[in-house]
């Protein structure tokens, strides 16, 4: 199967400039390949570096060493050294990211927040609206909320709006950071279906799923992120593939 992205030698240390330059080694020398149609689950103890790794794959954090080679528009691009305009284009067309929390934009209606990623790649507004409505309905967001800004929505409603937005475009790669954290059983099941449909169309997915049922329902492989013992007042983690 096609390798969608290939990570090698990836290392990340945070330097806390406002706290005396303290350094936190989060991960070191990570290698990971993700193929079309598979879902890799990042697994490991709290604080081990799962979210930091996921954010690095989205180029939110810049790793200190290593590469993230991504198939983007028929070419291979290294996200570690990519220019900002390339990262914007990658996020528009190739990688979707669903975090736990919706970044609410004041006064923008739910339907427009969800529609926006499809409009941004040039899909006609009526087609984008039809897909947004279908996703919002699947995720049980009541129709009366679609024209309202989601600032006042419940945590679970905001998370479902975020998921709808994240699944609007058929991205080749999806990064999912606990997409079901605030959801009830019915809505968790809807998200599991969306993830499995994305896999069936060939998307490569990397996710953090604390819910065991969800993890079992979508995961093909676990990627263990391990916290290492404290070393010279620093803490570091490493990672290794498990079956
Ligand atoms: N922006 C940041 N600046 C400094 N340190 C950070 C930053 N983000 C994360 N860290 C530190 O990096 C380490 C890994 O955090 P991360 O959130 O990646 O862990 P995690 O495995 O996702 O944890 P959890 O399962 O609890 O969400 C933690 O020690 C955290 O304090």
UniProtKB/TrEMBL annotation:
<keyword id="KW-0547">Nucleotide-binding</keyword>
<feature type="domain" description="ABC transporter">
    <location>
        <begin position="5"/>
        <end position="243"/>
    </location>
</feature>
<keyword id="KW-0067">ATP-binding</keyword>
<dbReference type="GO" id="GO:0016887">
    <property type="term" value="F:ATP hydrolysis activity"/>
</dbReference>
<comment type="similarity">
    <text>Belongs to the ABC transporter superfamily.</text>
</comment>
<dbReference type="GO" id="GO:0005524">
    <property type="term" value="F:ATP binding"/>
</dbReference>
<comment type="function">
    <text>Involved in beta-(1--&gt;2)glucan export. Transmembrane domains (TMD) form a pore in the inner membrane and the ATP-binding domain (NBD) is responsible for energy generation.</text>
</comment>
<dbReference type="InterPro" id="IPR003593">
    <property type="entry name" value="AAA+_ATPase"/>
</dbReference>
<dbReference type="Pfam" id="PF00005">
    <property type="entry name" value="ABC_tran"/>
</dbReference>
<dbReference type="GO" id="GO:0016829">
    <property type="term" value="F:lyase activity"/>
</dbReference>
<protein>
    <submittedName>
        <fullName>Phosphonate C-P lyase system protein PhnL</fullName>
    </submittedName>
</protein>
<keyword id="KW-0456">Lyase</keyword>
<dbReference type="InterPro" id="IPR012701">
    <property type="entry name" value="CP_lyase_PhnL"/>
</dbReference>
<dbReference type="InterPro" id="IPR017871">
    <property type="entry name" value="ABC_transporter-like_CS"/>
</dbReference>
<dbReference type="InterPro" id="IPR027417">
    <property type="entry name" value="P-loop_NTPase"/>
</dbReference>
<dbReference type="InterPro" id="IPR003439">
    <property type="entry name" value="ABC_transporter-like_ATP-bd"/>
</dbReference>
């Amino acid at each position: 199967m096609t390798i969608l992205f290939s990570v090698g030698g990836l290392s990340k240390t945070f330097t806390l400039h406002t706290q005396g330059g303290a350094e936190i080694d989060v991960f070191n020398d990570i290698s990971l390949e993700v193929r079309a149609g598979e879902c890799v689950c990042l697994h490991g103890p709290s604080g081990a570096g799962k979210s930091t790794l996921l954010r690095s794959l989205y180029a939110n954090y810049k790793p200190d060493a290593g590469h993230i080679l991504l198939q983007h528009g028929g070419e291979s691009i290294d996200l570690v050294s990519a220019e900002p305009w390339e990262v914007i284009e990658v996020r528009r067309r190739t990688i979707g990211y669903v975090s736990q929390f919706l970044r609410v934009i004041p006064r923008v209606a739910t339907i427009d927040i969800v529609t926006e990623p499809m409009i941004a790649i040039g899909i006609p507004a009526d087609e984008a609206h039809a897909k947004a409505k279908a996703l919002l309905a699947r995720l049980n967001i009541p129709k009366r909320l679609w024209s309202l800004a989601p600032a006042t929505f419940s945590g679970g409603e905001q998370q479902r709006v975020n998921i709808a937005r994240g699944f609007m475009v058929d991205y080749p790669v999806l990064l999912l950071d606990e997409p079901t954290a605030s959801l009830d059983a019915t809505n968790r099941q809807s998200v599991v279906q969306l993830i499995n449909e994305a896999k069936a169309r060939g998307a490569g997915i990397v996710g953090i799923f604390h819910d065991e049922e969800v993890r079992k329902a979508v995961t093909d492989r676990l990627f263990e992120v391990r916290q290492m013992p404290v070393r010279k007042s620093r803490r570091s983690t490493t990672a290794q593939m498990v079956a």
